[in-house]
Amino acid sequence: MPDPLGPVTRECVEGYLFAAPPLALLLFRRPPSRGRIWVPVSGKVETGDGDFRSALCRELEEETGLTSRPEELIDLDWHVPFVADNGETWRLHAFALRVPRTFLPRLSPEHEGAEWVPVEVALRRLHFEDNRQAVERLRARAFRSPS
């Protein structure tokens, strides 16, 4: 069955930087020209990236100054098609990376701020529903409290 959004024309990645316990996420605020919304690190997969993990490692370094290795990334098994601003169908692939809570990013021009927040605050601040669902996947996979 064909995708109701149409064929995917661009692949994208996003990365959730987290520390635990307790679970906290490092969120980034876009500047007013990009809606001043809270988001994870994200970007388009480029031709030379090789794979989604390598693309995210490149984006992490570009947007935060953080150097990481593809094998350090946690695949959230979250692959979401969406309609981009240009009307094309793009697909997002979500990963997470554990970093020290003391990590302070070097901000790129794509963001005007960053803040460590508890997971509950992150779920309220994240602008896009698919971002909130990715965070829920992270919480369910790795950080469920014992009952």
- Give me the count of strands: 7
- The chain-level structural class is alpha+beta
Unreliable segments of 5+ consecutive residues: none
CATH superfamily caption:
Nucleoside Triphosphate Pyrophosphohydrolase
Order of helices and strands: EEEEHEEEHH
Tell me the CATH architecture.
Answer: Alpha-Beta Complex
CATH domain topology: Nucleoside Triphosphate Pyrophosphohydrolase
- Average pLDDT value? 93
- Determine the fraction of residues in helical runs and give it as a percent range: 10-25%
Number of separate structural domains: 1
Question: Class, according to the CATH hierarchy?
Answer: Alpha Beta
Shape: globular
Distance between the termini: 41 Å
- Continuous helix count: 3
Rg, please? 15 Å
For the biggest sheet, the summary is:
7 strands, mixed
> Strand percentage, roughly?
25-35%
Would you give an account of this structure?
A hairpin with an 8-residue loop joins strand 2 and strand 3. This protein is of the alpha+beta class and 147 residues long. The model has no long low-confidence stretch (mean pLDDT 93). The chain is globular, with a radius of gyration of 15 Å. Strands 1, 2, 3, 4, 5, 6 and 7 form a seven-stranded mixed β-sheet that branches. It has one domain: Nucleoside Triphosphate Pyrophosphohydrolase. It contains three helices and seven strands; from the N terminus they run E-E-E-E-H-E-E-E-H-H.
